[in-house]
Amino acid sequence: MSVLARAAALSVAVLVVVGVGIFVAVYYVGSKSQLTNVAYTASNGQVNVVLQEDPQNNSSSKPDWVSYFVQDPKTHHFIHTTLFSIPAHVKVNVTIYGYDGCTPLRNNFWSRVQGTDGGTINVQQFNKGRPLGPARNVSVINSWAHCSVGHTFAIPSLGLFVPVASPNASATLCGSSPCTPSSGPYSLVKFSFTSPSHGGTFRWQCFVPCGGGFIDGNNGPMGTLGYMMGEMQVVS
Amino acid sequence: MAQNPAATDPGAGGHAAASGGAEPRHGLRLLLMWIPLSAAAILIIWFVWYPHLPPGRMSDAASGQQFDIAVLAVTAAPVVIGVLLYMIYAIVVWRARPGDEGDGPPIHGHTKVQAWWIIITSLVVLWAFAFGTYQLAQPGGAGGGQGPSPIWPLHGAQTTAWSPSSNDMLQVQVIGQQWAFTYRFPQFGGMESTMLELPNNMPVEFHVTSLDVIHSFWAYQLGVKADANPQVDNIAYVKPHQLGSFVVRCNELCGFWHAAMFNYGRVVTPTAFQGWARSLQLKELRAGVLAALPPYALTYDPTVIPQLGRDIVKVAGITGANGYYYPGPQAGTPHGDPVSP
């Protein structure tokens, strides 16, 4: 083979490798950038983060996947994303609307509330905006005893593990996402924690194997940003 | 054409033959260079490198691994130095001189050299085999998982209650799940924690399992690494020797957040450990967590809910979600009050 032919072959090989690399970067890494990062700002040392989890996500290309949504603090619209940012070293008040039905935890240990202020969460049940009982502070929601947990919200590196109560299992769930309080039953879970004093990205996830149709309920929405897992960016 | 003297004299080196002098004793030269270089390498490895080798000396398993690496490095160093020295010597002494375009001397077999080569390399390999086997079989099995029936157990009393003033074996169950490790302590009521604390200078028996895919429990500074397989009880032993913290990582690619599946553990005094474990047990008892957990078992079938006495819907290995786990409607659920513990 001549030197010219060798140089041409080498150039083609390099271009192929670079092309594959660019494709991977755009297809996989770039897909993350399509998700909006919702920026929360603090007021008086506190920041209010509002999320909801729905039984479906028909505002995405995976309409049958369960999904978290993040509320834009400016428009108050829920956005199909699981990326949000908060300031460092502030009190974070989290509100989660739980629209999805119950699913048993694979490890019922996650029924225990961990890492919140006071070690408890405040839970109240609603049906189309009407409260079904008083709000209560609980430290455990036993998902096996009453089929009472829809999903969890956990930031493992911060030791934060919160079971999100499911609404009344016999009621018809919200059928269109993002759900609204008038669209069906839901639970309202509130808790607080203190954000880290240093900046960084902290992954969060659900510990219920809620990937319907996937082996053992893993993968699918369990393993895809924008659905049941996300990142919390702490800005210092 | 001028004839290269080296090409006609198989016993002569090119340089010596070309200069007409007596052939030097290359073997002696090499030996005199090899001995001090090897001795220096061995001393550097043993006294400078060894104390800083991973994974440290936090446990008997870690110390053993550090010792193994040091011994094998000391074994390998003279061999490596011998090979490199010979190669460099050959390049310098036996290289072709300018204008020398003749063939090198023909190579003949040398029975004595070949015999020594075979004997020495065989001894080195046999030593590595014997040393490695002994170190692997020493009590505790060198920190690796040995399956449900260990053949190299660590010495310690198997008890249902653990005491800091004895040689009781602490039972710790490691449960892998996407994407976190949790730890159960059967000698403390089966309490479960996201934190791993261990007593110093006490034998520990890890029972490693998984609730979903394959994980690997790797307590790096303790020198413990054992696969976490669903439906398998993989036993590994360790005896910590130093107070302090250690990192636990998953060492088996287990999904999207595999890289983030890590946490930290601590080795504390036996008394401090007992205090921590008892307070956590009491806290979980009062909160209803212990009642919510399944009875302690060496493995768990996550498709079975013991408290409900029934299985999760499972069709051809696929479980559903979205609230459709249970067969049939949720009869008996208190209307509007599914939150009671």
Description:
- The complex is a heterodimer of chains A (236) and B (341).
- Chain A is α+β, with helices and mostly antiparallel strands.
- Chain A folds into two domains: 1-34; 37-235, Cupredoxins -  blue copper proteins (Immunoglobulin-like, Sandwich), CATH 2.60.40.420.
- Chain A contains two helices and 14 strands.
- In chain A, the strands form three sheets. In chain A, strands 2, 3, 4, 6, 7, 8, 9 and 12 form an eight-stranded mixed beta sheet that branches. A four-stranded mixed beta sheet of chain A has the order 1-5-14-13, with no helix packed on it.
- The longest helix of chain A is centred in the N-terminal third of the chain and has 31 residues, at 3-33.
- Chain A is globular, with a radius of gyration of 21 Å.
- The model of chain A has no long low-confidence stretch (mean pLDDT 89).
- With 341 residues, chain B is of the alpha+beta class.
- Among the domains of chain B are: 23-96 and 112-138; 170-292, Immunoglobulin-like (Sandwich).
- Chain B has seven helices and 14 strands.
- Chain B has helices at residues 5-8, 14-19, 26-49, 60-93, 111-137, 270-287, 289-292; strands at residues 170-177, 180-185, 191-193, 196-199, 204-210, 215-219, 224-228, 234-238, 244-250, 262-268, 304-305, 310-311, 314-315, 318-319.
- In chain B, helix 3 (26-49) packs antiparallel against helix 4 and helix 4 (60-93) runs antiparallel to helix 5 (111-137).
- Chain B is elongated, with a radius of gyration of 31 Å.
- The termini of chain B are far apart.
Features:
heterodimer; A: 236 residues; Immunoglobulin-like; 8-stranded mixed sheet; 4-stranded mixed sheet; 2 helices; globular; B: Immunoglobulin-like; 5-stranded mixed sheet; disordered N terminus; disordered C terminus
Give the topology, please:
The complex is a heterodimer of chains A (236) and B (341).
Chain A (H helix, E strand, L loop, with lengths): L2 H31 L3 E3 L6 E9 L12 E5 L6 E2 L3 E5 L3 E8 L22 E7 L2 E2 L4 E3 L4 H4 L2 E7 L4 E6 L19 E10 L5 E6 L23 E7 L1
Parallel strand pairs in A: 1-5, 2-6, 5-14
Antiparallel strand pairs in A: 2-3, 3-4, 6-12, 7-8, 7-9, 7-12, 10-11, 13-14
Chain B lengths: L4 H4 L5 H6 L6 H24 L10 H34 L17 H27 L32 E8 L2 E6 L5 E3 L2 E4 L4 E7 L4 E5 L4 E5 L5 E5 L5 E7 L11 E7 L1 H18 L1 H4 L11 E2 L4 E2 L2 E2 L2 E2 L22
